């Protein structure tokens, strides 16, 4: 009923093992998830990350979803991780989210990543700044 309409979903992500963050979001997904099925047809996606660990919100005891807390939005293309990157994606995901090792194998899990095309930082009520992808 909502075919072709955008909607959000929560997915576990990792940008690398704790000591080797890359800035590239990796995901461990199943084609049985309607979000993933949609991404395989149309790979355009956005990802918003709240300032959950920032000093301002923690110091002032402000909810990370409060507009005063920064949020970063990445947009780009979601692609299947190529074979030569799968081992790194596995280390990235499993080191940060060990529970995924126990997920049922019958769900045909595989790795995707976002090829980032645009980055926006919203740092206050509505203020948005573009950030170069190279940064």
From TrEMBL:
Q: Name one GO cellular component term.
A: extracellular space
- Localization: Secreted
Q: Which Pfam families match?
A: CREG_beta-barrel
- Record Gene3D superfamilies: Electron Transport, Fmn-binding Protein, Chain A (2.30.110.10)
Q: Where is the CREG-like beta-barrel domain?
A: 2-135
Which controlled-vocabulary keywords does the entry list? Glycoprotein, Secreted, Signal
Identify the InterPro entries for this entry: CREG_beta-barrel (IPR055343), Split_barrel_FMN-bd (IPR012349)
Membership in a protein family: Belongs to the CREG family.
Instruction: State the protein's name.
Output: CREG2 protein
What is this protein's gene name? Creg2
């Amino acid at each position: 009923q909502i075919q072709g309409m955008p909607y959000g979903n929560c997915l576990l992500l990792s940008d690398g093992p704790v000591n080797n963050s890359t800035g590239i979001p990796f995901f461990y997904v199943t084609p049985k998830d309607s979000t993933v099925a949609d991404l395989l047809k149309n790979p355009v996606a956005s990802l918003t990350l709240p300032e959950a660990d920032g000093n301002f919100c923690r110091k002032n005891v402000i909810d990370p979803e409060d507009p005063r807390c920064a949020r970063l939005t990445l947009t780009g293309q979601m692609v299947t991780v190529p074979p030569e990157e799968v081992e790194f994606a596995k280390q990235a995901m499993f080191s940060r989210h060990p529970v995924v090792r126990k997920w049922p194998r019958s769900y045909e899990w595989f790795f995707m990543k976002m090829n980032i095309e645009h980055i926006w930082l919203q740092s206050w009520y509505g203020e948005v700044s573009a950030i170069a992808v190279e940064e």
